[in-house]
Amino acid sequence: MLRLRFVCLFTLLSPAPALMAQTVPELQAKMAALESATRSAQSAGDNAWMLMSAALVLMMTGPGLALFYGGLVRRKNVLGTMMQSFILMAVVTVIWAVVGYSLAFGGSSWFLGDFRFAFLNGVGSAPNADYAGTIPHQTFMVYQLMFAIITPALISGAFAERMKFSAMLLFTVLWSLMVYFPMAHMVWGKGGLLNAFLGGAIPCLDFAGGTVVHITSGVSALVCALYLGKRLGYPQPSMKPHNLVISFVGACLLWVGWFGFNAGSALAASGLATSAFVATHFGAAAATIGWLAVEWIDNGKPSVLGGLSGCVAGLVAITPASGFVKPFPALAIGLAAGVVCYFMVTRVKRFFGYDDSLDAFGVHGAGGTLGAILTGVFATSAVNDALKDASGRVLPLGLVDGKASQVLNQMVGCAIAWGLATVGTLVILKVCDMAIGLRVSKEQEFEGLDVAQHGEEGYIFES
Amino acid sequence: MKKIEAIIQPFKLDEVKEALKGIGIDGMTISEVRGHGRQKGHKEVYRGQEYNVDLLPKVKLEMVVASSRCEEVLKALTAAARTGKIGDGKIFVYEVEEAIRIRNDDRGESAL
User: Which CATH number is associated with domain A25-454?
Assistant: First the structure.
């Protein structure tokens, strides 16, 4: 089409003798120059959006999650809790550079990548056409890194206020290697077992990390909460959040950062990115209303913490679906997540009595699973036509397209994520427990992580 | 000399200060305290976890006045601090043996 227009324009504007004088090779050279200019223009636009998205996703961990979690703990643990998010911005980055990126995105086996990109060998400005053909390979690498950072940070909500800093470091390094990189490869890596678009045996739809990020972190959080046991005295004396104002700021930063997380997962500044952006926002809005509505009915008052928790639950649930669903199904998914996660953190947690301190499981585990299954229901090729057969025909995606079996595929994907997270986390906890011990001493827990682990206090008003 | 110790509702502090200033009392020490008598606290709920908050914020005023002025001060204080509801607080009056102004060794009522 572009070629045709170019030729027509050329014919109209040029005097006939000049056209005659143009030789075929000259024309071809001009065409090639035009094509290359088009490509670099697209690359510039896509790359600008993807670098921005990578920065947005990093902002979700620090300060977003650090503030959100930091405000929910008691005053004596505010720095220790924020540090558990912040340190991962450094530690996971190094692991990712050395071996992590390669284990997640190198090779094309079912379960785990290989070492072809170890030490970022061959990861430069030339695009990797397997994953994102219009942006530098390095942009794709650094964008995916931000996901690897926030995922273990989410788990820290379960062991908040009682885990040793050293144990937490060892745990998250091993967890990244044994749980996150394999899961990321299975779902997003070329040839991964669950990759719907790059030759997976069990095609599972996960646009931005419902299984990879939220189920793995949420289920691992539950295992941590059960293994470590309750905080001293839980639930009394008062374990009230010490500063809901900073939690409020953190949750709002998460909401904004999530646009990079989900819309960025289109890996281009495309119409699909817009669609994912809209779905993300709608999911968060509906979940906020859903949580607050049931809380208001159930408990008599709509709480600010309820609103914040609802928005995060909605963002979690819409994550796997964001690039596959229309705006109204996004509202439905959000609403369901708000209601379900409310009952998870208020009823289910109390019934079983585990101390998932900041509800990493109740929000990320439950919301992630719900979202992953509902993705199989509402995914439609009208939004995302990337799945094609050999002849280039667009294939149906979810139940609304008439492909009921996708719901089953989603359940299998969830089951694998649950299984890997449970077994992996249990083994890693056991190793860390034997190597250095997981919990701080009773005296240190009473004193607070800030002084005991870091030698500082979060708030000193008299100086 | 008498020491007057009044525990009042925090939101009544400004009115009480004005009332005392009106009768010429401008020295006092206040502290933010928590406590409760017959007043019930309130319930707070964080993600379904309930906490009963029964120690409520109060303000404690302490002042020492000449015995002859005590009754007058108590009247002004109670009038200004009263809402008529449970939780208005209490006043305790003590005998004071001595008062000393650190700056210049003034003693007794002249130190007040």
Answer: 1.10.3430.10
Domain locations in chain A? 25-454
So what's the architecture of B2-111 in CATH? 2-Layer Sandwich (3.30)
3-class secondary-structure state, position B49: strand
d(CA A203, CA A195): 5
In chain B, whose CA is at the least distance from the CA of A235? B49
Q: How many angstroms separate the first and last alpha carbons of chain A?
A: 70
Judged by DSSP in three states, A121 sits in coil
When CB atoms are compared, the residue of A238, A301, A347 closest to B51 is A238
What are the sequence ranges of the domains in chain B? 2-111
- Taking any CB pair shorter than 8 Å as contact, residues of chain B touching chain A are 44-49, 51
C-alpha distances (whole Å) from A332 to each of A204, A266, A335, A371, A374 are 21, 22, 5, 11, 9
pTM of the model: 0.89
**What is d(CA B59, CA B30) in angstroms, rounded to the nearest whole number?**
7
Test B45 with A359 for CB contact under 8 angstroms: no
ipTM of the complex: 0.81
Please return the burial class of A1, using the count of CB atoms within 10 Å of its CB with bins 0-12, 13-18 and 19+: exposed
CB contact under 8 A, B48 and A349: yes
| A299 touching B (Cβ < 8 Å) | yes
Residues A5-8: contacts with CB under 8 Å, at least 24 apart: A6/A31, A6/A34
Q: Return per-residue pLDDT of chain A as tens, 463 residues.
A: 455 555 555 555 555 555 555 688 999 999 999 999 999 999 999 999 999 999 999 999 999 999 999 999 999 999 999 999 999 999 999 999 999 999 999 989 999 999 999 999 999 999 999 999 999 999 999 999 999 999 999 999 999 999 999 999 999 999 999 999 999 999 999 999 999 999 899 999 999 999 999 999 999 999 999 999 999 988 777 899 999 999 999 999 999 999 999 999 999 999 999 999 999 999 999 999 999 999 999 999 999 999 999 999 999 999 999 999 999 999 999 999 999 999 999 999 989 999 999 999 999 999 999 999 999 999 999 999 999 988 999 999 999 999 999 999 999 999 999 999 999 999 999 999 999 999 999 999 999 999 999 999 999 987 6
